[in-house]
Amino acid sequence: MQATTTVIGMGNPILSDDSVGVRLAHDVGLAFCGRTDVLVVEECSVGGLNMLDYLEGFERAVVLDAIHTKGGTPGTCYRFTAADLRETTNLCNVHDANFATALALGRSLGMTLPEDSDIHVFAVEIVDDLTFGTELTPLVARRYPACLHRVLRGLKSLLDTSPAPVT
Amino acid sequence: MSREISIDPITRLEGHGKIQIFLDDDGAVEDCYFQIPELRGFERFVEGRPIEELPRIVTRICGVCPASHHMASAKAVDGCFGGQVAPLAHKLRDMYYHAHFIHSHTAHFYALAAPDFVCGPDSDPAQRNILGLVAKVGLEIGGKVIEARSQAQRIQQIIGGRTTHLVWCIPGGVSKGLKAEELEEIRPLVANLYEFTQFSLQLFRDIVLGNEGYVDLILNGPYTLDLHNMGLVDENLAPNFYDGQVRVVDCEGQEICRYSEHEYADHVAEHVEPWTYLKFPYLKQRGWQGFVEGKDSPLYTATPLSRLNVAERMATPKAQEAYEEMFTTLGGRPCKALLASHWARLVEMVQNAEMLQMYCDDPEITSEEFRVIPDKITGEGIGIVEAMRGTLTHHYTCDENGICTSANLIVGTTNNNAAIHMVTKKVASTMIKPGVEPDQGILNLVEMAFRSFDPCYSCATHSLPGKMPLEVAIVQGGETVRTFQRGIGRR
Predict the structure, then answer these.
(1) What contacts A81, CB < 8 A, 6 or more positions away?
(2) In the sheet that A77-81 helps form, which strands lie side by side, from edge to edge?
(3) Which chain A residues touch B141 with a CB distance below 8 Å?
(4) Distant-in-sequence, close-in-space partners of A39: CB < 8 Å, separation ≥ 6
(5) Of B297, B329, B385, B390, which sits with the fewest C-beta atoms within 10 Å of its C-beta?
(6) Is residue B476 within 8 Å of B468, Cβ to Cβ?
(7) CA B467 → CA A79, B8, B158, B261, B439, distances in Å?
């Protein structure tokens, strides 16, 4: 059976809280080990046009990432879809096109990509993504189990439903 | 009453940066600061780790030029183990690196640079991107860009096993060679990439050179600086991205110095300003003199244009033709028009593609002597490569057990820090005048100044911003009287 859902851990494992998406993807991989309909990419640090390579051919994508919001509570796990990301400077880097632009370009070129509503983002509010280090900050580390629980529950729920046909 | 304009964060700039433009009572630009408001501390992070791990760690400094850090680090680590490297490994590393250059330059030119010229520098920011470009020049070009980028990526994957987080270079060589069947997969990809470089050059001729206004903007606009040029050259004084000597040529074309990796500290020093974390490299023997242009200045640029300015020729025939066309059109070498870096990238891509072709025809490239096992630790190594956005230096020391005791990095964009600061001020002073309210078009013209450097400050910061990707605020008497917002953030 070919994988129809990809789970992508975004982040840098040596940049403190920036690693939270990578950690989540690792744990998702363990939890869903043996499922042939899911492909887990534990560590992804590319963005822009390069993201198309990770998404092409899948009906659904689940992106696990870190997020900074104004006044957000560290360790909070947000969930949204690419339909909410009309434009952002970077899902990973801003050296090239932003994520929304890359998706639009890919679709216009006829690439097989998930619909915006089938690109699900779980993003954890973080404290520090500027300091090199291999550990999460204490506030994020404390909430990590709850975040993982939410991701696993959300992913299971998604896998029980059919995504939209790929475009 | 004085006013302040802030551009924070800068769009399409890897990492976080901020421009503050201070206006005087009449509304003219009084001063301008390009700031990097974060301290990354990577060098301290690697102290105490086994030195051979560093090439694998440094790929995570930055998601934009991981291969550049990997190569510079590998060369520095080679030095720490006595410097003996299998000749085939140098070829394979160089081959990989040419594909990496094409991949990166393609993204920069088509996603960042070309939209300014195709859509127009003062066009709606929402349209001034690769989608706008495709809408103007056709869907076919978008397909070619995606295909070329993907093929360059595939070549890297075949040669080095990975594209982003390389674990390939090891002390004395590389961990895998290139099999004959892998080479056969690469050949047609290289042929297509070569065609793509020719296509890109023609596109540049049609879109940019075919527009008198753009040529005038490049040559006669405020985007020029009388600074010196730095770049790696081979023994024939042609550009070399992976190895060679660093050559510095002054703003009149005279060689100031040429030095090997181990001599870098004799020639380059770094100045610190209190308003930014990013240092300002300068030519050590001239001493820091402030942000000054001219023949006696200690400041230099290290960009694609700089690399061609220091080179007497290109290493391959078609690249040589493109090089001659460029400098003939631009009025000779050295060229001081910073926006010409976009053109220089395309010329470099031709050399990259031709070098890939050369390696494909090298009968030794698939042999198996790709590593020499080091038998000693000498304790110090320096690796210099050309990152896409400038000369990149890694300098390590380690103890007798091979544990890292110090690391110093001068990254590509750091070399250009003074130049970016100076040209931003120059362009802002030209474009923002008393009685003229700065609009999106004017601010994009300011952004174009530093965008020509393809600057990168992030070292892998990538969390969703949660705020407007670009906000420009005009502050008068301590209150924000007008804001410009670009893009829509998540929250």
Answers:
(1) A116, A117, A118, A119, A120, A121
(2) A38-44, A5-10, A60-67, A119-125, A77-81
(3) none
(4) A3, A5, A6, A7, A58
(5) B329
(6) no
(7) 17, 10, 39, 42, 20
Candidates B41, B164, B491; nearest CB to A46: B164
Of B108, B174, B175, the closest CA to residue B387 belongs to: B108
Whether A83 and A30 have beta carbons less than 8 Å apart is answered as no
Cα–Cα distance for residue pair A100/B462, rounded to 1 Å? 15
pLDDT in tens, B377-393: 999 999 999 999 899 99
Task: Determine the 3-state secondary structure of B251 from DSSP.
Answer: coil
Q: Report chain A's terminal Cα–Cα distance, integer Å.
A: 20
Angle at B68 between CA B283 and CA B276, to 5 degrees: 50
The alpha carbon of residue B284 is apart from the nearest alpha carbon of chain A, in Å, by: 30
Instruction: Give me the mean pLDDT over the B93-98 stretch.
Output: 98
Judged by CB atoms closer than 8 Å, whether chains meet at B464 and A50 is answered as: no
Q: Extract the tokens encoding B289.
A: 């003199």
Closest chain B residue to A101, measured at CA: B131
Give B422's contacts (C-beta < 8 A, 6+ positions apart): B225, B227, B291, B293, B299
Report B:108-167 residues touching A (Cβ under 8 A): 108, 111-112, 126, 129-131, 134, 139, 142-143, 145-146, 149-150, 153, 164-165
Q: Which residues of B touch A90 (CB under 8 A)?
A: 462, 464-465
B410: pLDDT confidence band, cut at 50, 70 and 90?
A: confident
pTM assigned to the model: 0.85
* pLDDT of amino acid B254: 97
Range A139-164 average pLDDT: 92
Neighbour-count burial of B283, counting CB atoms closer than 10 A to its CB (0-12 exposed, 13-18 middle, 19+ buried): buried
Which chain B residue shows the shortest CA-CA distance from A18? Answer: B463
In chain B, what is the straight-line distance between the N-terminal and C-terminal CA atoms, in Å? Answer: 34
Q: Are the CB atoms for B257 and B248 separated by under 8 Å? A: yes
Q: Which residue of B has its CA nearest to A134?
A: B45
Radius of gyration for chain B, computed over Cα atoms and rounded to the nearest angstrom: 22
What letter does residue A157 receive in the DSSP assignment?
H
